Amino acid sequence: MTAGVKSSGTEHYDWLISFASVHQAIKAEKILVQAGIKVTAMPTPREIDISCGQCLLIAAGDEAAAFKLFAAGQVRWAKLYRRTLAQGPGGPVKIYERVSENTQL
User: Where's the Putative Se/S carrier protein-like domain (predicted)?
Assistant: First the structure.
C-alpha cells in the first residue's frame, strides 16, 4: 500500500461523500490518508446542501475500502454522491447524483 497523501488537485474523482459534521469529515480524511487512499477535501457544494459543511472526494474503486474504514473508525458519513462532468453551454458542469444515504445517523 502506498503512503497516504492529500490530492494535488489533478486527479479525477468520481465520488463525493458528505458527513454529519465537519469534525467527522476531518476524521474521515485522516483515516483515508493513513490508509493510502487519495482524497481531497472541499466545501460541500450548494447543489447538495445549503448548510455550511465539508465533504470529501475519492476516486471510483476506492469507495468500498473507504466505507470499511469508516465503519472501523466509527466515522459518521451522511450521503454518497456520484460526481460526473457534463458539457454545459458555459463550459463543464459538475453533476451530483445521490447514490446512498446513511440511515444510521
Answer: 15-82
On whether residue 1 sits in a domain, the answer given is: no
Q: Starting at the edge strand that comes first in sequence, how are the strands of the sheet with 77-88 ordered?
A: 40-43, 54-58, 15-19, 77-88, 91-101
The answer as to whether 27 is a domain residue is yes
**Which CATH number is 87's domain given?**
3.30.70
DSSP 1-56: -PPP-B--S-S---EEEEESSHHHHHHHHHHHHHTT--BEEEEPPTTT-SS--EEE
